[in-house]
Design a protein that fits this description.
Alpha-Beta Plaits, Rossmann fold, four-stranded antiparallel sheet, alpha/beta, 306 residues, elongated, 10 helices, 2 domains
Amino acid sequence: MDLLTVKHVTKQYAGHKALDDVSLSIPQGSVYGLLGPNGAGKTTLIRIINRITAPDSGQVFLGDREIAPEDIRRIGYLPEERGLYKKMKVGEQAVFFARLKGLSRRDAIARLKVWFRKFGIEGWWDKKVEELSKGMAQKIQFIVTVLHEPELLIFDEPFSGFDPINANLLKEEILALRDKGATIIFSTHNMSSVEEICDHISLINKSQNILSGNVDEIRRRHGSNLFEVQFRGEEEPLRERLAGRCEILESPESESAYRSLRLRVGQDADIRAVIAATNEAVELRSFREIIPSMNDIFIRAVNGTL
């Protein structure tokens, strides 16, 4: 079941088309990566989903009906442009934002105490925001985004400014929220994060959705039939045996007792025959397909070479 559906959304600003007939469907209970270079239209789409702005044409559905103003409380949004009131105390400000999301003061404080302990920032409750580091302020904003337990969470570059330890903490919390039933839109330029936490993606480029689907399926679909074979034995007999069956691309250096070759096998070739020929020529240790990374696919798609 899809929690959010975007249908043929178009948005234009003063001669610039920010979104051009964009459609996508976000499965309930998933982490959905919204990818694209700067200026591609991602932020405009996020603002339309949040009803900060309206599309020129097209529709956005939350569940089985078009999204309405009262649905905004079902959404938590952490924008890339962060903002806290610097002169307010941290706890006071966090309670203020929680009240805006519909929580009572008592419930807000109880939930905030849990999250502050989880992030190890209990001692900052009575500090002023201006005393916080950038990473600490981002933790506060993450907490107030998720505190009211919305069905849909939208994070725009949530790891920006975090060191690896805190970035990993945030990833774990995002996955925990998904496991509890939240649906998450995750906008980022960090392709390694996409592979680690995203179930599905859409790639927006030049205002259009040019690639959508399950992350693993996309990586396999856009592979180039590349394989790496590790073996023990002489390389020349192996090359002779594989001649005419596949293209030998390179011999990567190896520090182990085993040697390696990379092969490109034709689309219609029998992989089992290549494996059998390899096994007859040398002592075969492994034969594995080289699946492209999301970073490789991102660059190829944006450059039009996918």
